[in-house]
Write a structure and sequence with these properties.
The protein folds into three domains: 254 residues, 3-Layer(aba) Sandwich (Rossmann fold); 155 residues, Rossmann fold; 127 residues, 3-Layer(aba) Sandwich (Rossmann fold). Helix 22 links the parallel strand 13 and strand 14. The chain has 639 residues and is of the alpha/beta class. Helices cover 41% and strands 14% of the residues.
C-alpha cells in the first residue's frame, strides 16, 4: 500500500538551530525529537561521518550501519524507547541505535575490551530490549513481546527490523506463520538491501528483488492509493485495498506476507526520512500486524563500502581514504578455502556447502573456481546440514563449512541425521575458540562439549597450518561416518606447508617430547601456551612430556595413559570452556583406568566470555603459561 500521499504530517518540536554538532547534543531519544525536521538530514550525515571515522580505528560492521541511518532516526523520532521495543535481527546494525540512545561519544570503543559491544546487549542499555548476534531471532522474540503486552493489557509498540536475508531463516518463517494468531498489533520492518554478509541467495531473495523492481506492480499500487483518496467512506477504502491485493497477486503470485495475515506496505525508499517518518506515524495507529518493506543501500555514503559490501559487512581497522586493509600471513579460513578447492579439483565427488558465509569461511575460492559444486543455502544452517546429508547418501563428499557458534543451530541434524545414519559429512567449524572482538555470541567455545558425546563422530584440532592441511586431507579420504574439525579465527603460528599433505591415522597423537615430571597436553593452537609453560618448567629443572593430541575423539588412549602414569601431574590446555571440554575427557580416561595422576586444566570458565582482544581476555581468565605454572608447581613441590 502507498502511504505517502495520505498520511498525516508528523508533528515535530523545534529546537535551537544554532547547534553545529547535532549528534553530540543527543543524550537520548527525547533529544532527537527536539531537532528541527529540516536538520535531520544533517544529523544523518554526522552519524555516517562518525561511523566511518570511528570504525576505521576499531573495525566493525560498517556497511550494515551506514545502510540503516535514516531508518533508525525515523524509528526513534516516532516511537519512544524503552517503553516501545526495538528488536534488530542479528543486531550488528544497531550502532546507530546505540548512538541515538546516549552512547554516541562511546562509539569509538565499539568491540574493544570494556567498551561497547558490537551487538545489542540487554545489560548495556535499557533501550536494548533484546540481545542478539545470530540471524532469525527478531520476529519470534518480537511476537513473544507483543503477546506478553497484550496479556498484560499494555499499549506499547513492538517493532522488529530484519534484513531480507533473515527471511531465509526457519525461525523467521515460523514466526510469520504464527504472528496473526498470537497478536493483533506488531510492526515488522523488512530492510531490503539484497545482502546479509554476502549476496543473498535463494527463492525469497529473488522474490524480494522482483517485488521492488516490477514496474506493473508499482503502477497499480499507486493507482490503488489514489482510489483511496478519491472515494469517500470505509467501504470504498476496503474496496481499494482489495483491488491492490488482487493486483499484486495477479502480477506476483502468492504475495508472501498477506498470506500470513500481515498487512503489507511498500516498498519505499529507506533513505527518505520524511517518507519513513510519515509511514511509521501511520503504522503505529494500525490495529493489525503490519510489515513495512524498505529499500536501503548497504554502505551508503562511503564509496569503498559500496564497492565491496561483502568486505565492509564486518572488518578490522581500515584506511579511511580508500578502505584498504592490511593483510598478513594466510588465515586458517583462507588455507581452508584454498585446500578444499585444490582437493576438489582432483576428486570430483567433493562438494562445498555454506550457510550464507562464502566470505567468512573463504569458500569464495571454491565458488570462483568450481561453481557447479559450490552451494550457498542462505542463512539456514539446519537445511545446510540436511542438504549435506543428501549429498552423502548419493556418494558425494560434502564439506560443510559453518562457524562453530552457528553449528549449534544444526545440532539435531548432527545427531539424528548424520551420526545416527553414519553419513560421512565433513564438518568444518571455523572460529573454533575465542572470537575476540565479536564477543559471546560468536565465541566458538562449546563445540567440543556438544560433539564429543555423539556416537561415532570423529573430532580433531590442528596445532599449526601444516597439520591443518593434513587433517583436511584426512577428512577428504574418510568414509566411515561424520568427521569434524575445529580451527581458530585468524592466523596460525606461521608453519610452512609441505607440498603434498599426509594422511593421518585416526586417534593417533604426536608425542613431541617425553619426560618424567609433568605431562602437558595442549589441544590445537594452545600448543603456543604449552611451549611457554614447558620452557619455564625446564628452567626450574623439571622434566616435561609434551603431547600434541590432535584428536578430541577418539583419544589416543594408550599413549595418554602411558605418559600420564609416568608423570607427577598432567596439565591440559584448550581454547574451549572447561565444562565438558577436552580436559574433562582426559580426567575421565584416567579415572576409568584407575590412574591417579592429578590433572590440572587450562581453559575458559563456566560463563559467557566478553568481547575484547584475545591476549587481554586470556590474561584476565587465566589462559596463560603463568596460570598453568601456578597450578602445576604445587604438585611438584610436595615432599
Amino acid at each position: 500500500m502507498n502511504l505517502l500521499n495520505s498520511l498525516p504530517t508528523h508533528s515535530m518540536t523545534m529546537s535551537d538551530s544554532s547547534s553545529t554538532n547535532l549528534l553530540d547534543t543527543i543524550q537520548g531519544p527525547n533529544d532527537l525529537k527536539k531537532i528541527e525536521p529540516e536538520r535531520l538530514t544533517e544529523l544523518a550525515e554526522e552519524i555516517r561521518n562518525r561511523l566511518i571515522t570511528s570504525l576505521s580505528n576499531t573495525g566493525g560492521h560498517l556497511g550494515p550501519n551506514l545502510g540503516v541511518v535514516e531508518l533508525t532516526i525515523a524509528m526513534h523520532r516516532v516511537f519512544d524507547t524503552p517503553t516501545d521495543k526495538f528488536l534488530f535481527d542479528v543486531s550488528h546494525q544497531g550502532y546507530v541505535h546505540k548512538m541515538l540512545t546516549g552512547r554516541a561519544k562511546q562509539i569509538g570503543s565499539i568491540r574493544q575490551y570494556e567498551g561497547l559491544n558490537g551487538f545489542l546487549l540487554r545489560t548495556e542499555s535499557e533501550h536494548d530490549c533484546y540481545g542478539a548476534g545470530h540471524a532469525g531471532t527478531a520476529l519470534s522474540a518480537a511476537l513473544g513481546m507483543a503477546s506478553a503486552r497484550d496479556l498484560k493489557g499494555e499499549d506499547n509498540h513492538v517493532i522488529a527490523v530484519a534484513g531480507d536475508a533473515a527471511f531465509t531463516c526457519g525461525p523467521t518463517l515460523e514466526a510469520l506463520n504464527n504472528i496473526a494468531e498470537a497478536t493483533d498489533r506488531c510492526i515488522v520492518v523488512l530492510n531490503d538491501n539484497e545482502w546479509s554478509i554476502d549476496k543473498n541467495v535463494g527463492a525469497l531473495a529473488k522474490y524480494f528483488n522482483a517485488l521492488q523492481s516490477h514496474p506493473a506492480y508499482n503502477d497499480i499500487r499507486a493507482k490503488a492509493a489514489s482510489l483511496v483518496e478519491k472515494v469517500a467512506g470505509p467501504s470504498a477504502r476496503k474496496f481499494a485495498q482489495k483491488v491492490e491485493r488482487n493486483a499484486k497477486n495477479m502480477i506476483l503470485p502468492n504475495v508472501l506476507f498477506e498470506k500470513f495475515g500481515m498487512r503489507y506496505y511498500g516498498p519505499i525508499d529507506g533513505h527518505d526520512l520524511p517518507s519513513l517518518i510519515k509511514s511509521f506515524e501511520y503504522l503505529k495507529e494500525q490495529d493489525e500486524p503490519v510489515i513495512l518493506h524498505i529499500i536501503t543501500e548497504k554502505g551508503r555514503g562511503y564509496q569503498p563500502a559500496l564497492d565491496k559490501p561483502g568486505k565492509f559487512h564486518g572488518l578490522g581497522p581500515y584506511n579511511i581514504e580508500d578502505g584498504s586493509t592490511t593483510s598478513g600471513a594466510p588465515t586458517f579460513s583462507e588455507l581452508f578455502g584454498r585446500a578444499v578447492t585444490d582437493f576438489a579439483k582432483e576428486d570430483k565427488s567433493i562438494t562445498a556447502i555454506t550457510a550464507a558465509m562464502p566470505g567468512g569461511t573463504k569458500l569464495e575460492t571454491f565458488k570462483a573456481e568450481l561453481p557447479e559444486r559450490y552451494f550457498d543455502v542462505g542463512i539456514a544452517e539446519e537445511h545446510a546440514a540436511l542438504f549435506a546429508c543428501g549429498h552423502a547418501t548419493q556418494g558425494l563428499k560434502p564439506f560443510l563449512a559453518i562457524y562453530s557458534t552457528f553449528m549449534q543451530r544444526a545440532y539435531d541434524m548432527i545427531v539424528h541425521d548424520m551420526a545416527l545414519q553414519n553419513l560421512p559429512i565433513r564438518l568444518c567449524m571455523d572460529r573454533g575458540g575465542l572470537s575476540g572482538d565479536d564477543g559471546p555470541t560468536h565465541h566458538g567455545l562449546f563445540d567440543i562439549g556438544y560433539l564429543r558425546h555423539v556416537p561415532g563422530l570423529v573430532h580433531m584440532q590442528p596445532k599449526d597450518e601444516d597439520e591443518f592441511i593434513d587433517m583436511l586431507w584426512t577428512m577428504a579420504k574418510y568414509e566411515d561416518g561424520p568427521i569434524a574439525i575445529r580451527y581458530p579465527r585468524g592466523n596460525g603460528p606461521g608453519v610452512s606447508i609441505k607440498d603434498r599433505p599426509e594422511l593421518l591415522t585416526i586417534g593417533e597423537a604426536e608425542v613431541i617430547q617425553e619426560g618424567t615430571d609433568v605431562c602437558l597436553i595442549p589441544l590445537g593452537t594452545m600448543m603456543e601456551v604449552a611451549l611457554e609453560t614447558k620452557e619455564q618448567l625446564e628452567g626450574k629443572g623439571y622434566s616435561v612430556t609434551l603431547i600434541n593430541p590432535r584428536w578430541i575423539k577418539p583419544l589416543d588412549a594408550s599413549t595418554i595413559k602411558r605418559l600420564s602414569a609416568n608423570s607427577k601431574v598432567v596439565c591440559t590446555f584448550e581454547d574451549h570452556v572447561l565444562y565438558n571440554g577436552f580436559g574433562l575427557s582426559i580426567i575421565e580416561l584416567l579415572h576409568d583406568e584407575v590412574i591417579d595422576t592429578p590433572v590440572e586444566r587450562i581453559g575458559w570458565p563456566d560463563e559467557f566470555i566478553e568481547h575484547g582482544k584475545p591476549e587481554i581476555l586470556r590474561k584476565k581468565h587465566g589462559i596463560t603459561s603463568e596460570a598453568a605454572i601456578g597450578k602445576i608447581l604445587p604438585h611438584l613441590e610436595v615432599t
